[in-house]
Amino acid sequence: MTGSQDLGAASGAPGALEPELEELRARLEADLEALLAAVTPLDQVEADWRPAPERWSAGEVLHHVVLANRTFAIVARKLIQQGRRAGVTAGPQTRRSWPRIRAIAEIGASGPVKNPDRVTPAHGFPIAALCRDLIESHAAVMATIPALAGLDLGALRFPHPLGFELNLYQWVDIAGAHERRHLFQLRTITASPGFPRRTG
Predict the structure, then answer these.
(1) Residue 111 above 60 pLDDT?
(2) What span, in angstroms and rounded, lies between the C-alpha atoms of 189 and 193?
(3) CATH number of domain containing 59
(4) Whose CA is closest to 156, among 10, 22, 4, 13?
(5) How many domains does the chain have?
(6) I need a labelling partner for 168 at 20 to 30 A (CA). Which of 6, 74, 177, 183 fits?
(7) Pair 27, 172: CB distance under 8 Å
(8) pLDDT tens for residues 55-88?
(9) pLDDT in the model for residue 88
(10) Interval 3-15: pLDDT, tens
């Protein structure tokens, strides 16, 4: 049985999400739509252009987001499976949502961040393939949301490589916050002097 099948079995029969999880699902969906709107118009020249030799291109930003989403999905699946095995269930007063992780989403608030090696992007991937990978990696995160039902999301925690700890809810929500952060970065790249924007 695959990991996705395990999650499906754990989450039970499909049905309506509880309000907090539906709000999370809708927010992540909006995050993806905003990012796709920024990257799908790019051609390969635009996607590969760098503002400076040491700076990422739009394509590299997108590849980084894909790699990060895959990591977020893996961690969320592991925490879900851990919670199901250990019976870490929610009680009547269990908190079901948390404020968005704004320090990650807002570059102005947090400043530049040194990314872990595992999510360091490569240059020159086809932009169409990157867009497909973005949709697929984001869907892997979204697929974990139904399986959050019934779990004590705050009790299931795992350290982030940058030195802080996130609970299960936050490991899912961080995908959208991270996409918003890099949406700002993409807009900065495409607004930079010298960006090879097409005319006509």
Answers:
(1) no
(2) 9
(3) 1.20.120.450
(4) 10
(5) 1
(6) 183
(7) no
(8) 999 999 999 999 999 999 999 999 999 999 999 9
(9) 98
(10) 444 454 444 445 6
